[in-house]
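Self-study notes.
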Amino acid sequence: MHFNSLDFALFLPVVFALYWWVPKTSNRQNMVLLLASLFFYGWWDLRFLGLILFSCLIDYFIGLQLQATTEEKKRKLLLGSSLFINLSLLGFFKYFNFFQASFVDAFNFLGGDISTFHLKIILPVGISFYTFQTLSYTIDIYRKQLLPVRRFTDFATFVTFFPQLVAGPIERAQRMIPQLSRARSFSLQQGKEGVQLIVFGLFRKMVIADNLGVYVDRVWEYPEAITPYMAVFASIFFSVQIYMDFSGYSRIARGVAKLFGVELMINFNYPYKAQTFGEFWSRWHISLSTWFRDYLYIPLGGNRHHAGKTLLNLGIVFTISGLWHGAAWNFVLWGGLQFIMLALERLIKLPKTLVIRRLQWVKTLILINFSWVLFRADGWSQAKTFLIQMCTPEAFVGINSLTFQSPIALLINIALVIGLPFFLKLEKHFLQCSLPVQKTVLVATLVLMSVLQFSNEKAFIYFQF
C-alpha cells in the first residue's frame, strides 16, 4: 500500500476517524494504531507479519530483562542476544544470496571449483528500517539511557507505526515512546501542518520524482543504447529524482504522523546545499546518519584517537552503510566513494573564503551526482559503462541523441531540474507563511497536479531497502 495509491487514500481517513473516535487514552489510541499498522504491513505480504511481530516480542522481553538485572555479564548476554537475533534475520533475508555468491566467486577465482546456488528469498518490506529501530531500543536500555516499555502495545506501536514503518525515518525510542505513552488530543494547527506536509510530499514524489523517473528508467533499461548525452542527463535527473522521492516519502510520513498527534524527526535538510561531503551526510537521511554515528561510529572510537583510527572508523561505517542500502558490490563501492571523499576532506584543509566555499559546493554536487550512478546501477559493469560515457568529451556537446522521450516531455524534465531551487524556496516560504487564501490556492493547485498522476502509481525508491 503506497502513500501515492488509491488504497492509501481510502485507508487513511478510516484510520483517522477510528483513532479520534475511540476514548482518548493512550492504550486505546495505540491499539487503533497498532491494528492499522499491522493491516498496512500485511497488505504487502501477510507472511511478513509473523517476522515483525517476532522481532517485537524478542526485544520487548529483552528490554524488560535488561532493566530487571544488574549483573553485567547477563546484561551483555541479553544485549548480544538482541543483536544476534535481529541481525541474523536481516542478514538471512537481505544478504544470504549475496554473501554465498561472493564466497563462491572468490573461491573459484583462487582455483577452487564449487558451484553456486540461489535461494528464492523474499525481502520483507522495511526490514532494514525496523531492525535498526528495535536495536536502538535495546541498546539504549543497556546503556541505561532509557527505561523499558511496560505495555506491549506501546512498544509494538513504536516499531510498527505505519507512517514511517516502510522507509523511515528511523525513530528512536527516546523520542517516540514518551509520545505514545500519553493520550493525544487533536490539534487543528497540527492537523493543518500535517496536510501541508502530505501535499508537498505527494507533489515531490508524483509530479517531480516520477516524471523524471520515466526518462531515468528507460535509459537504465537499455544500457546498450546509452550515449554520452543520455548518461549525463540520466545521472542529473536521477540525483533530483532520488532526493524528491525519498524526501517526499519522509514529508508524507511526518504529515500523516501529525494527523495522529505524533511528531517524527526531520529526515532531510536541503542536502544539495552542502558544501562538503561531511555536511551532505548531516543533511541527507539524517535518521540513518545519526544512527550510525551513535551506535557504530562513536562506539568504535569515533574521532577520539589518532587520525588513522578515525579514518578506519569512517571506513567501517560507510562500508556498512553501503551494504545497508543493498546487497550488491556497487553499493559497497558507493559507500567506499563516500568514505574516500570524507577522508580527503579531513586530510586536505582549505581556507574558508567565499570563493573556496562556492567551489567546494560545485565539487560536492558533481561528485554526489557521480556517486548516484553506483547507487542506481544494477551492477558494477553497468555503472562503469555510465561513468565512462559521462566522462567522454562528447557528453558535453549537443543534445541531439536524447531519445526515449518526446521533446516536450524532455523539456518538462529539464524545467523540473532547473526549477527545483525555486520550488524548494517556495515550499519553505509556504510552510512558514500565515496567509490562508494564498496557502489554500497553492495547496489546491498542488493537490490537483498530484491527483492527475494517480494513474501512474510508482513505488518509492527506498522501499527496496
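Second protein, same conventions, sequence then structure:
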Amino acid sequence: MLMEYVRVSKQARDQLINLKRKTRIENWNVLCRWAFCLSLADSSPPREQKLVTDSSIEMSWRTFGGENEEIYEALLRQRCMESGLALTDQNLTQQFRLHLHRGISLLAGEKDLNSLEKLVRKALVAGEQKR
C-alpha cells in the first residue's frame, strides 16, 4: 500500500464538487482516478508546491485505487523512475499528491467538460497525444 489515506486541498475539493456536478460522476475516488491518470499522461513534471490537504475529502488508498490499486501504484512508480526520482515512500507520496492535484486542476480548467462523454473524449485525446 502506497499510503494509508488520500486527502485533497480545499481548492481541489471545490474543483471536485464542480466536476461532480458537471460530469454527474457520483464518487470522489472515480474523479480522482481520472485526474491522476490525466496528470500522468502529461510528460512534463508537476509543479513543485506545498499542498495543504485540509479539506473534508478523504479516502483510503484502497478506496482511491479500488481493485486496481496496484496498477495505480505501479504507474506512479514508473513515472518516478522516468523522472529520475528515488522510489522512497516520501517521494512517491509527494509525487502522487502533485499529480492528483495537477490532474484535478486540469479537469476543472476544461470549460466544456460538462458530461461523462466529454471526459472520456478528453482521456482519449490525451492518450493519442502521448503516442
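Instructor comment on the second fold: The CA atoms of residues 9 and 49 lie 12 Å apart.
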